[in-house]
Amino acid sequence: MLSASTPGSSPGAVALYRLYTDPEEWSNPPVPEDWVEPIRASMPPYWPAVTPSYGVGDIPECLRTYPEAVRSRHPVFSFAALGADAEAIVGDHRLDFGLGEGSPLARVYDRDGRILMLGTDYGTNTSVHLAEYRADVPTERTEYRVPIRRDGERVVVTLDDIETSTDDFEALGAAFEREIGVERGAVGEAEATLLEQSALIDFATEWLAENRG
């Protein structure tokens, strides 16, 4: 989860959801090859107001369902926001390159937002993906074929993106804490880590360029 605030405004919260995945890539359990196309054909279209979150825990799902929460239109990397500038942060979420410059991650960066990690680590710190788009590192291209609602109808769209990886995020995070530093505390029973998102992204952009082949 990200927390974002701007001068003169009340704090807001932003949460990420990982939604549609390709059944051909499912591994827990894998599906038979002849099931792949029927599953693709039967997947309901992404609908921001209705589609539940997937695989991100109870806190983002709770935020998504708040009456005043605003959710982005991206069917793979959906964000929801609550509070000041919520619409400005998640509105007009670019469909191609969904965690890059046209994403809520970049909007939070522009607003000097902060990241609050609750019982999590850098392996699930989504903001670092923005640095992958910015860093001078080799990247592979990929695409997603996903169903969305358009004019009330189900249509399948193809989204262009890059292959991202979290394999080195823990090492990156450890280096960031050594060189830049974070604030630590407790929220309930969870260990909490608070840091400046822009500081992390700027550090990660340089770190990836130096350490990722």
How would you describe this structure to a colleague?
This protein is α+β, with helices and mostly antiparallel strands and 213 residues long. The protein has 7 helices and 9 strands. It has helices at 36-42, 58-64, 86-90, 104-110, 128-134, 169-179, 197-211, and strands at residues 2-4, 12-18, 70-71, 77-82, 114-118, 141-150, 153-162, 183-187, 190-196. Strands 3-4-2-1-5-9-8 form a 7-stranded antiparallel sheet, with helices on both faces. Helix 5 packs across helix 7. The radius of gyration is 18 Å and the shape is globular.
Blueprint (SSEs and pairs):
Elements: E1 2-4, E2 12-18, H1 36-42, H2 58-64, E3 70-71, E4 77-82, H3 86-90, H4 104-110, E5 114-118, H5 128-134, E6 141-150, E7 153-162, H6 169-179, E8 183-187, E9 190-196, H7 197-211
Antiparallel strand pairs: 1-2, 1-5, 2-4, 3-4, 5-9, 6-7, 8-9
Helix pairs in contact: 5-7
- H/E series, N to C? EEHHEEHHEHEEHEEH
Distance between the termini: 29 Å
* Total E-strand runs: 9
Tell me the number of helical segments per DSSP (H or I, 4 or more residues long).
7
Low-confidence stretches: 3-11
